[in-house]
């Protein structure tokens, strides 16, 4: 795993992150380190730090922003989980901004791009078609529907479909409160660290 001075992925850096958050947010009741780490009990030990960094850096701020915006306007939340067989094999999987080639229909970045060397391009093209249909509908101010895919409900904080998230993969799936365990572990306060 990578060693990064920017994001907390080791035990000592996670401890420092919690100490820094407490110092920088004196009026906020922070979750305990144990409370947060309990949400990662199903994660391999070596990957816990990456999970914490991913969630405090990307996933939770996304949820907090969606909740804030949903109070004033319609919001549709998604998580892109698809990765080609090659990207899964090398342990990269779906990463931040990995969906952009699918949105733009530029799945291959050149003749030496290894992304689809182990297959998966046909599935990627189908995912791209669905995503483009949804994004075009957004641009037209229409319901973000896609052929042969489930409807994508508006993100709300209440009701049976509370915090509905479209999970984009080989087959799209809508999940209510997808990150509920993480959200409850970290708490409802918007947190930051420097």
Q: How would a textbook summarize the main sheet? A: 3 strands, mixed
Number of helices: 7
Number of domains: 2
> Strand order of the main beta sheet, please?
1-2-3
As a whole number of angstroms, the C-alpha radius of gyration is 18 Å
Helical fraction? 40-55%
Strand residue content: 5-15%
Find the structural class using helix and strand composition: mainly alpha
- Calculate the terminal CA-CA distance, rounded to whole Å: 22 Å
Which whole number gives the mean pLDDT?
A: 89
Order of helices and strands: HHHEHHHEEH
The tally of strands reads: 3
Silhouette: globular
Low-confidence stretches: none
Report on the architecture of this protein:
This protein is mostly helical and 194 residues long. It folds into 2 domains: 1-74 and 183-194, no CATH class; 77-152, no CATH class. Helices cover 41% and strands 6% of the residues. It contains 7 helices and 3 strands; from the N terminus they run H-H-H-E-H-H-H-E-E-H. Strands 1-2-3 form a 3-stranded mixed beta sheet, with no helix packed on it. Strand 2 and strand 3 (173-175) form a beta hairpin. The radius of gyration is 18 Å and the shape is globular. The two termini are 22 Å apart. The mean pLDDT is 89.
């Amino acid at each position: 795993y990578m060693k990064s001075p920017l994001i907390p992925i080791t035990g000592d850096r996670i401890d420092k992150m919690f100490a820094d958050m407490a110092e920088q947010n004196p009026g906020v009741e922070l979750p305990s380190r144990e409370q947060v780490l309990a949400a990662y009990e199903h994660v391999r030990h070596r990957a816990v730090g990456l999970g914490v960094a991913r969630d405090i850096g990307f996933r939770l701020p996304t949820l907090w922003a969606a909740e804030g915006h949903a109070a004033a306007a319609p919001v549709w939340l998604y998580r892109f989980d698809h990765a080609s067989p090659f990207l899964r094999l090398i342990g990269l999987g779906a990463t931040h901004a990995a969906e952009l080639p699918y949105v733009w229909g530029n799945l291959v970045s050149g003749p030496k791009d290894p992304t689809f060397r182990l297959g998966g391009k046909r599935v990627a093209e189908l995912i791209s078609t669905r995503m483009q249909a949804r994004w075009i509908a957004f641009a037209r101010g229409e319901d973000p529907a896609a052929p042969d895919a489930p409807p994508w409900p508006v993100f709300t904080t209440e009701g049976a479909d509370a915090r509905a998230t479209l999970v984009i993969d080989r087959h799209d799936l809508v999940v209510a409160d997808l990150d509920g365990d993480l959200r409850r572990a970290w708490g409802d306060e918007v947190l930051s660290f420097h």
